[in-house]
Structure formats: structure tokens, C-alpha cells
From TrEMBL:
Residues 1-26 form the signal peptide. This is Uncharacterized protein. It comes from the Eukaryota. The keyword Signal applies. It comes from Monosiga brevicollis. Keywords: Signal.
């Protein structure tokens, strides 16, 4: 199992600051991704009460993206997903526990002492149950209702307690990823929007890799607004969330070594709440300040109304908020730019120059296509999934890991049973349409 590594960047509308040019070095691990970006409308595959499953893409070599629309009360949405995807949920949960048992050993040193002890004595499921007990008082009832619905709807021998345990996995094993937020002078369109990247590196040996989907929630009256989560069947938290107004990126914060608390809100539930309920960056920062936080992660918060992005160092004890002016800059790895905040996939502060050199090279044109082709392709970040939020157009681009595509010179060479998301075809989703979509008959 790989620790999750993630990157993010944000671009902002501010006056351009003159910067010493940074040499572009050919020290990136990947090559540009020139594979197709599918933009056709999702095609209905199956519909039951409260849920409809769609596919986007040609299906060739597994290049299909699943889009699941959910409607109604939290329990009804959970129940419908459980029922519609019962077979996939059943195989995912079984593969997940097998994987934890087989692979947790080398990673155990990263975990808090109390959790290590439980794993050694009673196994990983017991450690997850320990996390469940500590976080349960802080989990909103609507999440628990949805989880109960999922177990009931699946009706596949996986009980509520087991589904809950699966949901504490991100608290135990965090991802190392990349992100950015880019606005104003950092993107092609200075007239007012923000673009945001979220690349999830969680390892292609993680069984979740075979169960990706985009869930589009249409909550009942009083429970926020429609939002999307790039997630896995049977997993209702969100580590990649977009609500049209606010969207979130995430990355493990490994260099933080002060106290963590296991008791509090799992961060993926907080990330989902931000997309579902928040309207501005301040809403999400207030949510972060006022929540009982657990472990340390970097979060990326983008907002269409603010047309800005903030990187947040989030931990049990403190919250540090960074914009394009105060993000720690050091050359050559991390230049500072007006309207751009980025974090590469390595432990921060990172001396790796790949992402910084790409930000320098493509500064001013950090749109979806440039990011997909030239940024992520080259950084080779986003193995499990990656998403690009274009708030101005209310469009997201998504890629998920899957079966290998041909090594045709159009992307990073793939030499395993699975191809990483950053090297595969991408999918363009018109969220304006998807958020407005009513339940299929
Ligand atoms: C979905 O679930 C709710 C219960 O929350 C129910 O009232 C509604 O009729 C269901 N069906 C659809 C299509 O939303
Ligand atoms: C994902 O599915 C493929 C094809 O069935 C399989 O070869 C691979 O081992 C699976 N990956 C994981 C991590 O289970
Ligand atoms: C935190 O880091 C400091 C400096 O690197 C080290 O001395 C200390 O032992 C670390 N604390 C923990 C709890 O790992
Ligand atoms: C520029 O931004 C505006 C406002 O967000 C949007 O309507 C327009 O489509 C954008 N243009 C491009 C080329 O993305
Ligand atoms: C699918 O895989 C086959 C065999 O590797 C290859 O010839 C073909 O070009 C691939 N198609 C796409 C769309 O990647
Ligand atoms: C690379 O992609 C382009 C455009 O999608 C396609 O025309 C071309 O055939 C691909 N190259 C190879 C070697 O398949």
C-alpha cells in the first residue's frame, strides 16, 4: 500500500508580479498525456428509485467513467446505491479487507502508537473499529443514515459496522497527492474565474482502484445543494469534492509531527460538507476552524464566487491558511506567482523541481487541457484519480485509473496491469447539466 500523495494548485486574479525566471529542467517523471478527452453526454445504463447509473466514454480498454446520480433522503440515497451496485460493493469490501491484512505491515510505523498496537494485536479491522468509536460522536447523522442505507440496500452480507469501518480508512492511511488553484494571470481567462487541480496518488495496488465513480448527489430540501464527489462505489465520504460554489483538494501532511487526535470529524466528511453546504472560501475556513479536527492534511479550497483558492494546513491543533502571497516560497523548487498556489506530490517543503518548473512554463495558461496534457502528464501525479475544476464554466474534468491503454507514444509508458489516471483518457463533465438532472424514469 502506498501512502496517499496528492498535489494541488490554485490561480488568483491579482496584478502580475515580476519573477526571476526559473530554469525548466527535464526532471519530470512523466511525458505529456495526448490521449482523448471524452466530452459526450453520459448514457443511461440503469435506473432504480432514487438512483441512476450513467457511463461516459467508449468503453474501449475500460475507458468508461461511471456517473451515479443519487436522489432523496440520505437513507434513500444510501439504500439506492447499495441496491444498484450491490455486486461491486460486495467485491470491493472483500478485496479491501484482504488488502489491509496483506499490506499494512510496512506502513505501520507511520501510524500513531495506539493504532500500531491494535493492528499488531488484533489486526487492521480492529484498528478501523477503534477509529469508528473515536469519530462516531462527531459524524453528522445524515452520513450515518446514508451508511445504514448502503448496508441495507446492498443486502449482501456486509453490515453497517463493516461499511463504517471502510469509511475510516482515509483517517488511517492518508494520500500523498498534488493540487493547485489558479486564477487571474495564472490562467488564460483573466476576466474572472478560478481553476483547481486535485490529483490523488493512493497507489495502484489499492483495491479501491477498480471501483471509481463520480457520484452526483441531489440532496433533499434543507440539506444543501447538489454536489459531486469523485469516489468509489460504497464509499460516501469525499476526498475529491466539487459543489459548483466550493470545491476541495487534499493531500497528506507528513512533515507535521505534533499531536494528532483520533477523536473528531473524519476529514473526508468535512470535505464533502464543504461542497454540499458552503458558498465561499470563508464558509469553508469557518467550518475548518470550528470543527473538531483529527489528523493533519493539506486541503485546497476553491470558490467560484471568490474566484480564488487557498491552501490550508489542517491539523488537530492549528489551521494555517495560504494564498498566492504567503505560501512559503523557495527557489528553484517552489516559485511564487500571482494567482497561483500549488503543492507537489512530495513531502512538503519539497526540493523536487518538476511541478515548480511546469508552473513556471505554463503560468498564464493553466486551463484544463494544458493541465491534463502538460502538467499532470509530466508530473505523473494522480495515479488513482485526478480532477480539474473549471468554476467559470461549471465543468469538471476527471480521469480514473483503469486497465492499460495502448503504449502508442501518446502518454507515459504503462507497464503494469493498471494504468494510472494521469496517463489515461480524460472525461469532461458539464456540471451545470448534471446538477440540474432529474431522476431518470
Ligand atoms: C427518493 O426517496 C425519497 C425519500 O427520501 C422519496 O420521497 C422519493 O419519492 C424517492 N424517489 C425519487 C425518484 O426521488
Ligand atoms: C483491478 O482489476 C484488474 C483487472 O481485473 C486486476 O488485474 C487488478 O489486480 C485489480 N487491482 C487491484 C488492486 O485489485
Ligand atoms: C518531531 O520532530 C522533531 C524534529 O524533527 C523530533 O525531534 C521529534 O522526535 C518528533 N516528534 C515525534 C512525536 O515524532
Ligand atoms: C472566461 O470566463 C468567463 C466568466 O467566468 C466565462 O464565461 C468564459 O467562458 C471564459 N472563457 C474561456 C475561454 O474559458
Ligand atoms: C486498446 O488496447 C489495444 C491493445 O493494447 C490497443 O491496440 C488499442 O489501441 C487500445 N485502444 C485505445 C483506445 O487505447
Ligand atoms: C496519438 O493521439 C492522436 C490524437 O488523439 C492520434 O491521432 C494518434 O493516432 C495517436 N498516436 C498513436 C501513435 O496512436
Amino acid at each position: 500500500m502506498t501512502m496517499m500523495t496528492c498535489s494541488f494548485w490554485a490561480v488568483a486574479l491579482v496584478a502580475l508580479v515580476a519573477l526571476a525566471p526559473v530554469a525548466i529542467r527535464a526532471d519530470c517523471p512523466g511525458t505529456p498525456n495526448l490521449r482523448p478527452i471524452y466530452s459526450s453526454d453520459p448514457v443511461l445504463v440503469k435506473s432504480i428509485e432514487n438512483a441512476s447509473l450513467y457511463h461516459v466514454g467508449t468503453g474501449e480498454n475500460g475507458t468508461t467513467l461511471r456517473v451515479l446520480h443519487l436522489y432523496g433522503s440520505p437513507y434513500a440515497m444510501g439504500y439506492a446505491q447499495g441496491q444498484l451496485l450491490a455486486d461491486d460493493i460486495k467485491t470491493m469490501v472483500a478485496a479491501f479487507f484482504e488488502y489491509l491484512d496483506d499490506t499494512i505491515a510496512p506502513y505501520i510505523n507511520w501510524l500513531p502508537q495506539d493504532v500500531q498496537k491494535i493492528i499488531l494485536e488484533d489486526g487492521p479491522a480492529a484498528a478501523l473499529q477503534f477509529e469508528v468509536d473515536l469519530t462516531m460522536p462527531y459524524i453528522s447523522q445524515y452520513f450515518l443514515d446514508e451508511i445504514r442505507g448502503l448496508a441495507d440496500g446492498c443486502n449482501c452480507g456486509i453490515d453497517y459496522k463493516t461499511v463504517l469501518q471502510v469509511h475510516l480508512f482515509p483517517e488511517l492511511i492518508k494520500a500523498s497527492c498534488s493540487m493547485f488553484g489558479a486564477w487571474g494571470p495564472a490562467i488564460a481567462n483573466v476576466s474572472g474565474t478560478v481553476n483547481q487541480l486535485r490529483a490523488l496518488d493512493w497507489g495502484l495496488d489499492n483495491p479501491l482502484v477498480n471501483y471509481s465513480l463520480v457520484a452526483v448527489y441531489h440532496p433533499e430540501e434543507g440539506l444543501g445543494h447538489p454536489f459531486a464527489s469523485v469516489t468509489f462505489n460504497g464509499f460516501i465520504g469525499s476526498i475529491t469534492s466539487y459543489g459548483g460554489l466550493v470545491g476541495m483538494s487534499e493531500k497528506v501532511w507528513l512533515s507535521y509531527n505534533e499531536s494528532a487526535s483520533r477523536a473528531g470529524v473524519p476529514f473526508h466528511f468535512l470535505m464533502r460538507d464543504a461542497a454540499q453546504f458552503d458558498r465561499t472560501i470563508d464558509d469553508t475556513l469557518n467550518r475548518i476552524y470550528n470543527s473538531k479536527r483529527t489528523c493533519s492534511v493539506h486541503l485546497g479550497v476553491g470558490s467560484s464566487l471568490d474566484k480564488q483558492f487557498r491552501a490550508v494546513e489542517y491539523s488537530h491543533e492549528e489551521v494555517l491558511v495560504y494564498d498566492d502571497k504567503n505560501y512559503p516560497s523557495y527557489l528553484p523548487a517552489h516559485p511564487l506567482f500571482d494567482g497561483l498556489v500549488f503543492i507537489n506530490k512530495h513531502v512538503q517543503p519539497s526540493s523536487d523541481t518538476c511541478m515548480g518548473s511546469l508552473m513556471t512554463k505554463y503560468y498564464g495558461s493553466l486551463d484544463a487541457e494544458t493541465t491534463i496534457r502538460n502538467v499532470l502528464g509530466n508530473t505523473a501525479s494522480g495515479d488513482m484519480h485526478a480532477a480539474f475544476y473549471d468554476y467559470g464554466n461549471n465543468v469538471i474534468h476527471v480521469s480514473v485509473a483503469g486497465l492499460p491503454v495502448a503504449n502508442d507514444g501518446n502518454g507515459t509508458v504503462i507497464d503494469g496491469p493498471m494504468a494510472p489516471a494521469h496517463a489515461r483518457p480524460w472525461f469532461r463533465l458539464d456540471m451545470e447539466k448534471l446538477f440540474a438532472q432529474t431522476q431518470a424514469q
